Fold this protein.
Amino acid sequence: MGRDGAGARERKRHGRHYTPAALAGFLAGRVAARISTSGRVRVLDPACGSGELLFAIKAALADRLPGVPVELVGYDLDPAGLALARQRAAESGIGAEWRKRDFLADCADMPAESFDVVIANPPYVRTQQLGGEAALALRGQFGLRGRIDLTHPFVAALPRLMAPGAVLGLLCANRFLTTKAGANLRRVLLVDLTPVELYDLGDTKLFEAAVLPAVTIAVRGGTWGSCRYVSVYEEGAETTRSREIEGVAGALPAVGAPGSRAECGPAVSAREAPEAVAGRTASVSRGAAEPVGSPAAGDGEPELFAALGGTTDAMVWRQGRRFAVTVGELATEPGAAAASMGWRMSRVGHDDWLRGVAERRWRTFGDLGRIRVGIKTNADKIFIAAHWGDPAAEPELLCDLITHHDLRPWRIVRRRETRVLYPYDLDHPRRRPVDLERYPRTAAYLEQHREVLSARTYLTGAGRQWFEHWVPQRPHLWRMPKMVFPDISDRPRFALDRSGAVVNGDCYWISLSDLGGEARAEELACLMMGVANSSLGVRFYDAVCGNRLYSGRRRWITQYVSRLPVPDPATACAAAIVRLVRELAQDPDPGPAAHGELDELVNRSFAL
């Protein structure tokens, strides 16, 4: 497919992101390693594109099982892709059956247990691109739940077509590992199949799609054993800091008797002697410090794929970036929760640390307060601006707006005086649109944009007025203090806001009114921010939530943040964390020594 803008838009609309040869070879090799037969091998690719995966599995099986006949069947609706596949097959002398048909329409009539291998990179098309009616029909046809993308029905259709012992090699977005919507795929892989290998390829950018890929190898039948789990992510500064503190955490002594912060804190104050902390963290930093290859040594793909097959952690260079390859096993929750809860990696020693945190945990963030997303207008160009003309709207309806640009750890630093037109009664606990007759300037402004605003038919269809926001949240809570943090960030940036500003939809927030009385609420907020902004918070997120994006960015969304642990606020360590966080919030530029002291306090609060 071409790389022009129109071609890129077309690929995105249909979810067409063809698999590059190196990645196809890796996936095919992992599948072939699981095949052992002396008879023919029938292979299906339900969305074959130009046939790269089928050609790769043909070659891998020829190496693994020389002389065994292999039959290839490829489905796709893209005529250009199929034409290229046919041409390549003819030039290589490879026999294959190319079907220009809709696999999802055909699959119900295909014979059960008719394939020994399924290798697939299904189209990735989200619910909003599918359309509501199409998504509803697919959910009903394939027994899916909630929000889906087109990957879900493709995978749900496959187990019935696989013979006992057949192997699935799946390349798809890694979102399914941790998100609520991913429960559909997790359920298929756990109930109808048995996963045996899992590779979260993270931000390696191994192919053009904007989504981060994962490779799953699963078999039909068999009993649940261990599933190899390997992840690859760029090693950023925040991750390195977390790894360094990880070593310190394991060696920390138990918390002493309640007393002053010094009794609970480090033996040498990090603020007084930062070189002491630096020396300790450096001495326990994880092994494999020297990455395989070098920044200048080609694209690094051979080293990367070799590391994926290794038995120990490794560092590799690829295209001038350093990646951490982490090896473990898939850990799932017992029983029905295995599919509903996101998957995580189990590692020697790591699980003990998680159990220790759980034992010392007093509450979780989700236990203490409701985590809300900010407003979503679905018409930002009309409702949000840094400079409002005069007389665009009545001043009382123009509210200061916090966006992710304004968030630092501990505090809000407004980069631009962005304001939002917020047409709601701020004194009412429920969403109550203002009477536009009382605000003639606002009414005139909105009337200029009525056509665009009225086009949001999903809003009016829900019984709302044409000039409302799609998600306005609870208006009366904006005036109360709140904890705010960005949706996407490479490091935690949990901050306390007392300005009364509205929070934008690129952030989440917790109202201190949910945390109890005024004094207690602020203490709890400081304790929660201390945990969230610490290296322990990052380590816990990566171990339990794990939804990272490119360049070390993480999704700080409700389902993940709600799981962050909070230590008992009655302990000396918790009190010390609260005092330190209040100091950090007043310091315009807290240095690494202050953050090191916080890290040690938080680690001690969860140490056994």
